[in-house]
Amino acid sequence: MMQISKISITEQIYNILKEKILLQDYEIGKKINTKEIANEFNISVMPVRDALLQLDNQGLIVNKPRVGFFVRSFSKKEIIEIMEVRKMYEVYALENHFATINIKEIERINILMKDFGKDLTREKFDQIDTELHELIINASDNDFFIESYIKIEDLFVIFKHLNKDRMGNSHHEHLKLTESIISGNKEKSLDILKKHLDQVTDSIIQNIERKQKTG
Ligand code: NI
């Protein structure tokens, strides 16, 4: 019984902290105060530490012994490498499993995107972005492939927030991508996807470099 309740508190704290990191409520590089979090939720420090160790395992947090926990920051090289792996996964899935993409879902997303028009919000955009890229991955129908993509997905969710000024362009590229998938044009779809991911990567790097200059 004790074990179960402890796990559930840790899991709840894990989810709360992960959300804060992914939404960048906790800025990259920020030190995380375990005592403050424990006090806020009226719990002991242990489950907070356990949650942070899980996030450390996932690569979202860095644990510096005797110093504390920090939201992980990424070098330009790391960003390029993570985005290269992402591209590998998505291009592979689109190339080898084009025929099994859920077209009904792609059509639904395409209609949703057209409806957004000028009311495109960050929230709507993020949701569509995640759904569209996951549909490509899910076309593989390969559980190991999908699971390993999901493991790195959290890392590039953080990068999304370094990529805010590109939302309109990405939206346009998503529209073109869905349209070429619906029309059955695999080569064109691959081309759009590759360019989209390259441009996202460039924009993230530019933003990181701008931040480093000003900060
Ligand atoms: Ni996208």
Mind sketching the topology for me?
Layout: H1 2-22, E1 31-32, H2 34-40, H3 45-58, E2 61-64, E3 68-71, H4 76-96, H5 103-116, H6 122-138, H7 143-160, H8 167-182, H9 186-214
Helix pairs in contact: 1-3, 2-3, 4-6, 4-7, 4-9, 5-6, 5-8, 6-8, 8-9
Bound molecules: nickel (II) ion.
CATH class of the largest domain: Mainly Alpha
Quantity of strands, as a count: 3
Summed over residues and divided by their number, the pLDDT gives a mean of 90
End-to-end C-alpha gap: 48 Å
Proportion of strand residues: under 5%
Write down the domain tally. Answer: 2
Residues in helix, %: over 70%
Strand order of the largest sheet: 1-3-2
Low-pLDDT runs of 5+ residues are: none
Rg computed from alpha carbons, rounded to a whole number of angstroms: 19 Å
CATH architectural group of the largest domain:
Up-down Bundle
* Shape category: globular
Bound molecules: nickel (II) ion
Could you please say which CATH topology of the largest domain applies here?
Answer: Four Helix Bundle (Hemerythrin (Met), subunit A)
The CATH superfamily of the largest domain is GntR ligand-binding domain-like
Largest sheet: 3 strands, antiparallel
Query: What's the order of the H and E elements?
Result: HEHHEEHHHHHH
The class by helix and strand makeup works out as mainly alpha
| Helix count from the secondary structure assignment | 9
